[in-house]
Amino acid sequence: MAQQKTAKKNANPLDGGRERFESALKDLEKDWTKFQKDADKRRKGFEKRAEKEVKRLQGEFKKTPLFKRARKQAKALEARAEEIREEIEASDVYKRAESLRKDAEKVIEDQVESLFDNLRIASTNDVATLERKITRLNKKVRDLEKAQAA
């Protein structure tokens, strides 16, 4: 009998140790999952409360005299900027500058076209015209090939 007790004592430290460890590990995993879900729930609740508070504070701020005055001044500045733009566009200097810009644009376009002509470089319009002609000729060739094959 003494031998049986000694044998049980020697086998006991390892018996069931693995099972207890695995059980504890599973419990730990369950607790961790529960903790994560709880943390997510609390975070979402906090975000909703924070968003509501921000909206409330924005609403309160919009009611302050400082905000109203700033909004009024911003509108006045926008209106003044539009008036200045219209005054500039109506001025003789602006009209003259716009006329000179258009004239310069026309002169440059004419010079570039002249340069292309002198260098015998096709313009975009010339290339488009040639592409249309090639397309028509290719269609005629296909039609002739079909007629010969038949």
Which SSEs are present, and which pair or pack?
Layout: H1 2-11, H2 17-62, H3 65-90, H4 92-119, H5 124-149
What's the main sheet like? none
Class from secondary-structure proportions: mainly alpha
SS field, number of helical segments: 5
Taking pLDDT < 50 over at least 5 consecutive residues as the criterion, the unreliable ranges are: none
User: What fraction, in percent, of the residue positions are helical?
Assistant: over 70%
SSE order: HHHHH
- Rounded mean pLDDT score: 88
Distance between the termini: 112 Å
Number of strands: 0
Number of domains: 2
Radius of gyration: 43 Å
Shape: flat
Which percent range describes the beta-strand content? Answer: under 5%
Account of the 3D structure:
The model has no long low-confidence stretch (mean pLDDT 88). The chain has helices at 2-11, 17-62, 65-90, 92-119, 124-149. The protein has two domains: 27-90; 95-150, no CATH class. It is mainly α and 150 residues long. Helices cover 91% and strands 0% of the residues. It is built from five helices and no strands.
